[in-house]
Write a structure and sequence with these properties.
It is built from 11 helices and 10 strands. It is α/β, with parallel strands linked by helices. Strand 1 and strand 2 form a beta hairpin. The two termini are 26 Å apart. Bound molecules: 5'-O-[(R)-(carboxyoxy)(hydroxy)phosphoryl]adenosine and zinc ion. 5'-O-[(R)-(carboxyoxy)(hydroxy)phosphoryl]adenosine binds next to helix 5 and helix 6.
Length: 348
C-alpha cells in the first residue's frame, strides 16, 4: 500500500509518498519526499513568523502535493490512505495541512490518519535504518522539543524526560542570534564551531537532580535544561569589549556546542543503561548536527549499543516521516473522522 503524507507544522510545506515493502525488517520505502522551505521568508525577521508561515503553506500546499504524486508516479487511485501531522506545532500552519488532508481524503474516498509530529521524527529512524532493536531509547531534539522516549514495541512511545525550559534547537537559534549570526542558527553555529576551540569559554553544564514538579512520573535527573547555558553565553558576549572577532565567535560556538552535545548524549546513554536498551536513536532537526552525529556513533561503539540516525533530509521536518508514522498507525487500526482538528499542544 502507498500512503500520502502531509506535514505543515512549522515552516516547511512537505508532502511525500511512502510505500510498504512487505519486508518486516525494512517495512517502508520512500517514493517521493517534496519539501518547500520557507527559511528565506522568515530569515528577514530572525525567526518563524506564524502568520506568514500559514499564508505561505496555503500558497505552496497544492503544488507540493502534486509534485509528490508526480515524482512517485502515483495516481490518487493508487493511494490507500492520507496521513497528516495533527500537532504539535503552530496552529495556523497545522490547520492548512489538516484541512487539505481532510479535503483530499474526502474527495478521493481515502481513510485519514492523524500523526503526532514527534512520532514522525521517531519513525524517521525506522524509515532510514529499518526496525530498531527494541527496547530502544530515542532522543527527539528539535527547535520545539528535547525529549527522551522509550520504545518497547513498534509504535509505542513512552516519555522518559523532557526539557524544562528551552529546546536544544531553540538554544542554538538564540545563541546564533546573540552572536549576530543568521537564521536558523543551528547549522551556522555547527559550521563555525568546527574551526573554534571548544575549551576556550568556560560555560556551565546543568545538573538536574530533583524531579520536575510539573511532570510527576518523569525521572527528574534525565530532564534537560538549556536556558542557563544560553544566559551564560549572553553574559560572556556582553562582558566582551568591542565587536566579536571571527575567531571569538568560533570559540563561543564550539564551547556552546561541546556542552549541548555532551549533555544530550550523557542523558541518552544513561537512559539506555537504566532501561537496558538494545539500541539508541537521535532524531529531529538537531540530529543534523555534525558533532552530535559523530559523538553518538562513537559512544554507541564504545558501549556496544547500536546508535541510529536519520539522513540529513529526514532529520529536519519532512512528510516522509509523517507518512511512515501514518502507515504504522493505519496498520494499528487508527483513522480519524472528517471532524479531525489541528491540536497545537497534542501530547504523545
Ligand atoms: O525538527 P525541525 O526541522 O523543526 C522542529 O520540529 O522544530 O528542527 C529545527 C531545529 C532548528 O532549531 C535548527 O536550528 C536546528 O533544528 N538544526 C540544527 C542543525 N540543523 C538544524 N541544530 C544544530 N546543528 C545543526 N546542524
Ligand atoms: Zn520537527
Amino acid at each position: 500500500m502507498r500512503i500520502l503524507g502531509i506535514e505543515t507544522s512549522c515552516d516547511e510545506t512537505s508532502a511525500a509518498v511512502v510505500e510498504e515493502t512487505g519486508a518486516a525488517a525494512t517495512p517502508w520505502a520512500i517514493r517521493s519526499n517534496v519539501i518547500a522551505s520557507q527559511v528565506s521568508i522568515h530569515r528577514e525577521w530572525g525567526g518563524v513568523v506564524p502568520e506568514l508561515a500559514s499564508r505561505q503553506h496555503i500558497r505552496d500546499i497544492c503544488g507540493v502535493v502534486e509534485r509528490a504524486l508526480d515524482e512517485s508516479a502515483t495516481a490518487w487511485t493508487d493511494l490507500g490512505a492520507v496521513a497528516v501531522t495533527q500537532g504539535p506545532g503552530l496552529v495556523g500552519s497545522l490547520l492548512v495541512g489538516v484541512s487539505f488532508a481532510k479535503a483530499v481524503a474526502a474527495a478521493a474516498g481515502l481513510p485519514l490518519v492523524p500523526v503526532h509530529h514527534l512520532a514522525g521524527h521517531i519513525e524517521s529512524l525506522v524509515l532510514q535504518n529499518g526496525e530498531l532493536p527494541l527496547p530502544s531509547v530515542v532522543l527527539v531534539v528539535s527547535g520545539g522539543h528535547t525529549s527522551l522516549y522509550l520504545v518497547e514495541r513498534p509504535g509505542s512511545y513512552q516519555l522518559l524526560s523532557r526539557t524544562r525550559d528551552d529546546a536544544a534547537g531553540e538554544a542554538y537559534d538564540k545563541v546564533a542570534k546573540l552572536l549576530g549570526l543568521g537564521y536558523p542558527g543551528g547549522p551556522i553555529v555547527d559550521r563555525l564551531a568546527q574551526t573554534g576551540n571548544d575549551r576556550a569559554v568556560a560555560l556551565p553544564t546543568t545538573r538536574l537532580t530533583h524531579a520536575d514538579r510539573n511532570a510527576p512520573g518523569l525521572k527528574g535527573d534525565l530532564d534537560f535544561s538549556f536556558s542557563g547555558l544560553k544566559t551564560a553565553v549572553l553574559r560572556h558576549v556582553r562582558a566582551h569589549e568591542g565587536p566579536l572577532s571571527e575567531s571569538t565567535i568560533a570559540d563561543v560556538s564550539a564551547s556552546f556546542q561541546r556542552i549541548v552535545v555532551s549533555t544530550l548524549i550523557d542523558r541518552l546513554f544513561e537512559a539506555a543503561r537504566r532501561y537496558q536498551a538494545k539500541s539508541v536513536g537521535v532524531a529531529g532537526g538537531v540530529s543534523a548536527n555534525s558533532r552530535l552525529r559523530s559523538e553518538v556513533q562513537e559512544r554507541g561503539a564504545r558501549r556496544e549499543i547500536p546508535a541510529f540516525l536519520p539522513s540529513l533530509t529526514l532529520a529536519t521536518d519532512n512528510a516522509a516521516m509523517i507518512a511512515a508514522a501514518g502507515l504504522r498507525r493505519f496498520r494499528a487500526g487508527v483513522t480519524a473522522a472528517l471532524d479531525l482538528n489541528a491540536d497545537a499542544a497534542l501530547t504523545l
